[in-house]
Amino acid sequence: MRTRVLSFLNQWRGTAKEAFENVSIVAKFLCLLHVTDRYIISSTHVQGPSMLPTLNLTGDVILAEHLSHRFGKIGLGDVVLVRSPRDPNRMVTKRVLGLEGDRLTFSADPLVGDSSVSVVIPKGHVWIQGDNLYASTDSRHFGPIPYSLIEGKALLRVWPPEYFGSLR
Amino acid sequence: MLPTLNLTGDVILAEHLSHRFGKIGLGDVVLVRSPRDPKRMVTKRILGLEGDRLTFSADPLVGDSSVSVVIPKGHVWIQGDNLYASTDSRHFGPIPYSLIEGKALLRVWPPEYFGSLR
């Protein structure tokens, strides 16, 4: 009886080894995928009217890299993925229009009159603004945001295919 | 953060799960990325959540000038326990909740102060 159980287990030993090796390859791949997606480069679906005409209203898929902001290489004019200061669970896509120390003058309400507001961006903060001034909630509403809220820089658009390429 | 944390330096254990689930509450000692310097982490206490109205003394050494503030949505108010030697939300305003990176659990060094932070 015992020898039958042992020989049964021996038969399955080779298969078990193969299964384990395959599972560990998949596990390693998933880890690599997670690290790449989170810390190196990832694809994001962005939608909304705030970045017209640069980004489409109905939604685009863009590739964003997560390295530049760690090395301080975010500059003026970059389209960045930022964690919303009003809602920690939301990511927003805006353009960086001011760095720390810059003085910015903007129109408080682009639809009404010419009231100007002048602001100096404090240390460690940046000014983000959507390209579509009439339909964007950005630094003109919630002020300059801490640099650490930046989570990625947009590289290029991959979908829809007729708009493939860099964002200009 | 005197007298809660020592001047000469402590080692504390901090967990990085609570802030992801929104379980940071009033009175928690948290590790926060400084809004003035993205490369620095600071340890402060949460003294206000979004929607709260706070009244504080603009300068605790000089007079009684009070400032009243409502904490906007998605922000928290952090303050050091040592009001006279802390740069915190009384200086740079409420910070976005996403800057919180961890919650202090307990102190592990020095051994005579081992235990929770009270």
UniProtKB/TrEMBL annotation, chain A:
Protein name listed in UniProt: Mitochondrial inner membrane protease subunit 1-like
Designated gene of the protein: LOC104758705
Pfam families reported for this sequence: Peptidase_S26
UniProt-listed InterPro entries: LexA/Signal_pep-like_sf, Mito_IMP1_subunit, Pept_S26A_signal_pept_1, Pept_S26A_signal_pept_1_CS, Peptidase_S26
Residue ranges constituting the Peptidase S26 domain according to the UniProt record: 23-112, 119-159
Family, similarity comment: Belongs to the peptidase S26 family. IMP1 subfamily.
Location within or outside the cell: Mitochondrion inner membrane
Keywords carried by this UniProt record: Hydrolase, Membrane, Mitochondrion, Mitochondrion inner membrane
Domain of life: Eukaryota
TrEMBL record, chain B:
Main location: mitochondrion
Gene Ontology annotations of biological process type: proteolysis
Pfam families, A to Z: Peptidase_S26 (PF10502)
Subcellular location: Mitochondrion inner membrane
InterPro entries named among the record's database cross-references: LexA/Signal_pep-like_sf (IPR036286), Mito_IMP1_subunit (IPR052064), Pept_S26A_signal_pept_1 (IPR000223), Pept_S26A_signal_pept_1_CS (IPR019758), Peptidase_S26 (IPR019533)
Keywords: Hydrolase, Membrane, Mitochondrion, Mitochondrion inner membrane, Protease
UniProt superkingdom: Eukaryota
Any one GO molecular function term: peptidase activity
Peptidase S26 domain mapped to chain residues: 1-62, 69-109
Family as reported in the entry's similarity comment: Belongs to the peptidase S26 family. IMP1 subfamily.
Protein known as: Mitochondrial inner membrane protease subunit 1 isoform X2
Source organism (scientific name): Camelina sativa
